[in-house]
Amino acid sequence: MSDRLPPLTALRAFEAAARHMSFAMAANELNVTPAALSFQIKSLEEHLGQPLFLRLNRAVKLTEAGRALAPGTSEGFQSLTAAWRAARRLQDTNTLNVTAGPAFTAKWLAPRLYEFARAHPEVDLRFSATLRIMDFDRDEVDVAIRFGYGPDPGLFSMPLRNEWITPVMTPELAAQYPTPESLRHAPLMFDDSIDFLDPPCDWPTWFRAVGMDFTPTHGPHFSQADHAVDAALAGAGIVLGRRAMVVKDIHEGRLVAPYKRALETKAHFRFLCRKGAETRPQIAAFRAWMLAEIEKTAAVHETLDILPVEEVPPA
């Protein structure tokens, strides 16, 4: 039996009919008449030498051969569509699709986007703020900004500045709680989005890093880092702020980090794209802009006494 593939149009007709389980709906999707679609499927069955559908009175049903063929044709056309879109995107030097977590988008990207838009008016930026790991081909993503440990096999991965955490608050609250010891009586808040870090970068760990044995148990918890930072900006309490989420507010004086001690984690933000795509004009411009923006707040990093969290004495 020959392995020669049948015509692509016949396979396309079968895939649509198998997905809809309706010749009429498949014909409508492919913009052909039901008779033309039926002819394509009939020719495919003749090529195979056995039926793919059971034709019932008002419905169709896959035969055993049809059930064997359907998954592969569906996956094949999805792959072809993704490959075609990827090839077409190579011709587009103006559109840039970026995905990042909601907190990073709100606290790092959004407040700075005006500067990029002003410097690169030719680039049409499109953002998807989600924690879902998106596929570069299927989801038509050009750049992903992700936080964690990696690795990122098969991708161009550029680490951004190392990530640290330190207590941050408004200047007014800093005046009320001038020392780490005074935090025993302060309104502490919890950013639960960093609970996955190992070793932990939480309040008990930070207190041990400054020589205190204290485990706070009361205070509001936030599942999103940007919500915790917004609460701190409103003066609701003191939170362990992550560098990327608070550095601009510290740099511009809306928040302060009065105790200097910060904990550095090996988890970090990475700039990700397909290998080879990092040189595309809009991606290279966006990467260079991010690095330049990070350097604008580098002075904050220099004011802190940063300790790798692995060096904090255990509980």
From TrEMBL:
MF annotations from Gene Ontology: DNA-binding transcription factor activity; sequence-specific DNA binding
Keyword annotations of the record: DNA-binding, Transcription, Transcription regulation
Matching PROSITE patterns: HTH_LYSR
Domain HTH lysR-type, residue spans: 6-63
UniProt keyword DNA-binding present: yes
Matches recorded under PANTHER family: GLYCINE CLEAVAGE SYSTEM TRANSCRIPTIONAL ACTIVATOR, HTH-TYPE TRANSCRIPTIONAL REGULATOR
Name of the featured protein: Transcriptional regulator, LysR family
